[in-house]
Amino acid sequence: MSVWSPSVWIHAPDVVAIALCLVAAVIDVRTYRIPNVLVLVGLAAGLGLNAAAGFSVFGGASGLGVGLLSSLAGAIFLFVIFVVLSSLRFVGLGDAKLLAAVGALLRWPSVLWVLAYVSIAGGVLGLIVAASKGRLGMVFRNLFSLSKRLVGGEDAVELHRIPYAVAIFLGVCWVVAAKHLPALRLG
Question: What is the secondary structure of 61-93 as a DSSP string?
Answer without folding.
Answer: HHHHHHHHHHHHHHHHHHHHHHHHHHHTTSS-H
